[in-house]
Design brief:
Blueprint: E1 4-9, H1 12-24, E2 28-33, H2 35-45, E3 49-52, H3 61-70, E4 79-83, H4 88-97, E5 102-105, H5 111-132
Length: 151
């Protein structure tokens, strides 16, 4: 499997559609119906990426983002909005005021575009992780990770 993706959505048919598209591309897709279930799934599953519907009954996407940001265990998981909001103004406001990595309009959801955007965000995240790792130190000529043995 390439990566684990959590789809938080109030429409089970959309979850199944995303699962079908991304499953064929090699991703593991976990579905969560609604914001509260989505937060629980984030903590339990620790996905590599989250697809989040912004307009849901009960706990909406804004509330999910706020609660995610407050929780150290899930705050750094990247999120792509998957929403019916198609106004450029909405997109600019959400991207400017939240930590969303991307904004995908459901009615404009070509399969290749969805996969390309997910791969871009995942690649960007893995590049950030690589930059945060300390460089490997050269040792006494042994293999990486081996302790030197005195003779």
């Amino acid at each position: 499997m390439k990566a684990k993706i959590l789809c938080i959505e109030d429409d089970i048919d959309m979850i199944n559609y995303i699962r079908l598209i991304l499953g064929k591309a090699g991703y593991e897709v976990i579905g969560a119906e609604g914001g509260a279930e989505g937060l629980e799934a984030m903590r339990r599953e620790q996905p590599d990426l989250i697809l989040l519907d912004l307009m849901m009954p009960g706990m909406d996407g804004a509330e999910v983002l706020l609660r995610k940001k407050e929780d150290q265990t899930i705050r750094d998981i990247p999120v792509i909005a998957l929403t019916a909001l198609d106004s450029p103004f909405d997109q600019i406001m959400w991207l400017a005021r939240t930590d969303l990595q991307d904004f995908i309009v459901k009615s404009k959801l070509p399969r290749r575009e969805l996969i390309a955007r997910i791969e871009r965000v995942l690649h960007s995240r893995s590049s950030e992780v690589d930059r945060e790792r300390p460089p490997l130190q050269a040792g006494g000529g042994g293999a990486i990770g081996q302790d030197s043995v005195s003779r």
